[in-house]
Amino acid sequence: MKRIFLFLLTNIAVLVVISITLRLLGVDRWMDANGGINFGSLLALSAVIGFAGSIVSLLMSKWMAKQSVGAQVIEVPQDATERWLVDTVRRQAAAAGIGMPEVAIYDAPDVNAFATGWNRNNALVAVSTGLLHAMSKDEAEAVLAHEVSHVANGDMVTLALIQGVVNTFVVFFAKLFGYFVDRVLLKNDGRDGPGIGAFVAEIAAQLILGVLASIIVMWFSRQREFRADAGAASLEGRQKMIAALERLKGNHEEAAALPKNMAAQAISGGGGFSKLFMTHPPLDERIEALRNAK
């Protein structure tokens, strides 16, 4: 959950910064000489901004993850637990055919782990202290294998490409909305270019559309979770992965009694409309998918 949330948050921030910068530099030009819309230029500009946003977010993903959770990379293992973590990830990375990721621990009570990075051979796998305390070694190995599978499957790159396409349309329609506000609602004739109202409306629309468009990215993220579960089952065994998911389910059922703002962080997610914004499928669905796998 953390890797996707951080990626999306960074992406929206980068999109807004790029849009503002281009406007201030005066290179945000997509209208013809008469003030009409040049749709070809607008689409091209939207694609440049959209893919720049997703690529910058991808390149920053590992650094952002370390900074946001205070992850401490294990340079030289200091105890048996750290040695076991590094050795386990090294073994799984070799079996998955990827370069050795950085391995990190971050201090958090939640039972969680994540993997991020801009390519298969330059990744980060991080686990919480809560996971190390709550899970057996077999269960933790399955979780690590799940994260290594995300790296091996190139999930962050895939999501970045999907995000780039989504961003393109977010920027495209946000600029059209700004144009509509400027010309129709504010009655600007366009002789001096778009007014400040168009700029404000465009940024507001970009933020709102960016959040709504994340539903598409979340859907793809949920599908990749099933594939990472299958990869973990291949690396460590199906029963280990099922046991790890059942342990997570038990922990998050206990968390249901927590205040809403804390329980919302549970990997098992909720239902109804909130399910659209879940980065992970419900744990019951993941367990059932593994049990039914051939």
Helix-residue proportion: 55-70%
CATH topology of the domain at 73-152: Zincin-like
**Beginning-to-end CA distance, first to last residue:** 27 Å
Write the H/E string, N to C: HHEHEEEHHHHHHH
Name of the CATH first level of the domain at 73-152: Alpha Beta
DSSP helix count?
10
How big a fraction of the residues is strand? 5-15%
- Report on the biggest sheet: 4 strands, mixed
Structural class assignment: alpha+beta
Overall average pLDDT: 85
The tally of strands reads 4
Structure in words:
- The protein has helices at 2-25, 39-69, 80-96, 129-134, 137-152, 155-185, 196-236, 238-255, 260-263, 283-292; strands spanning 72-73, 102-106, 113-119, 122-128.
- With 294 residues, it is of the alpha+beta class.
- The chain has a 4-stranded mixed beta sheet, with helices on both faces.
- Helix 6 (155-185) packs antiparallel against helix 7 (196-236) and helix 8 runs antiparallel to helix 10.
- The model is unreliable at 254-271 (pLDDT under 50).
Concise summary:
With 294 residues, this protein is α+β, with helices and mostly antiparallel strands. The chain is built from ten helices and four strands.
